[in-house]
Amino acid sequence: MPDTVPPSGSYPVSERNKVRRLHERGRYDRESVHAILDAAMLCHIAYVIDGQPYCTPTAFWREDDHLYWHGSSASRMLRSQKGGVAVCLTVTHLDSLVLARCGFNHSVDYRSAMCFGTARIVEDAAEKARALDVMINRFYPDRAATLRQSTTQELKATTVIGMRIEEASGKIRSKGVADEEEDYALPIYAARFPVRQVIGAAEPCPRMPAGVPYPEGLAGFTDGRRLDEIMLEAQHRLYGED
Amino acid sequence: MPDTVPPSGSYPVSERNKVRRLHERGRYDRESVHAILDAAMLCHIAYVIDGQPYCTPTAFWREDDHLYWHGSSASRMLRSQKGGVAVCLTVTHLDSLVLARCGFNHSVDYRSAMCFGTARIVEDAAEKARALDVMINRFYPDRAATLRQSTTQELKATTVIGMRIEEASGKIRSKGVADEEEDYALPIYAARFPVRQVIGAAEPCPRMPAGVPYPEGLAGFTDGRRLDEIMLEAQHRLYGED
């Protein structure tokens, strides 16, 4: 249970999601946390089987306070635990390398979000089929309706997992080089190297029939564009700006 | 204990690290696993406190079969558990978005590695000081010796955590669009969008005294270059090619 009453619009803060290390970087408001989540396609999910932690990368998406992903190694475990299992879903964007004047102040600028909840398999067939369409459209605007329909066998072979975000925290560092005051005068090279994840030009499948047009929904997928911008734009196109 | 005798040069395969889903993508040889680890600066670490899983992003580095990182939220827990704690350290590189002709075959090309071990705090002062120098040099060739020396207080405020890789697995998908044979003739747009993480041009700290030269060790840090290439090169420069 939360041990702090959160301001409206924020996630509750408890011992579980309180940012301890460099706590001044912590954010609990939905707007900050969602902006970090919605700019990502991949997350890492931690879960426990027989006391052993596992950390699995997977594509995920957000709908209000719910997160969804599909077909992870946790599926096997989830099938045997109808009550669901505790997970921590984390997203990290690396924004820069920070080279300071001493080892201690070397750092990176980043945006990360940790979300805590109870993962459950989406069992209802209609809910699952809808979720999979949403997954496609969330990443690739208006694409689901253009695809060959999923077969019963394909739907059966896919597990969709969902969780409500019970608690969450964001953490942001964006200040570049920050050294001790007395170190700035030292003749030591210090700099910030920005980092970005970008897409390249589309490589169309060589087996497409002639005349298949480039989809309008992928107009934002241009050579050299930041993936976090593309993902945030696609999320807003589907759901509006929160 | 491993339930399979691994080929020489490979990590043992057990129930813990066996790749289950799409197992044909699995790799257990050190060369494949290390190549994935060494191309990364950030990892995600899963650990458990009182049954609750946590997933924390952090910078890490590899030395033979050992992984090191510093100052994570797990530190608090580690202090109270001298025997160490079970962790799973995962690295993921996203290499492309794969847009297929049906939802089921949408995918991403990626390289990921999961490493299992027991995390312990590096207590010995000399070992810790050396580890922190190595950490700097592993990311930024020859940089540690150019920095203002760490103070006793800074060293005390830093926790270095290490683990031996007991088991590991890599997973690689790199085939781009792969559809059902009967779907290729459909008039549906299908393509691969390459994804890469790159650095931008150095943004030198404006408070540097005049005349501080750009370090030779950062010659590889050029505008637009892939971070995974830079990291792999820095690792090889420090340790040789495994």
From TrEMBL, chains A, B:
InterPro entries found in the cross-reference section: Pyridox_Oxase-rel (IPR024747), Split_barrel_FMN-bd (IPR012349)
Pfam families the record matches: Pyridox_ox_2
Superkingdom, taxonomy of origin: Bacteria
Transmembrane segments: none
PANTHER family on file: 5-NITROIMIDAZOLE ANTIBIOTICS RESISTANCE PROTEIN, NIMA-FAMILY-RELATED PROTEIN-RELATED (PTHR34071), FLAVIN-NUCLEOTIDE-BINDING PROTEIN (PTHR34071:SF2)
Name assigned to this protein: Flavin-nucleotide-binding protein
Native source organism of the sequence: Paracraurococcus ruber
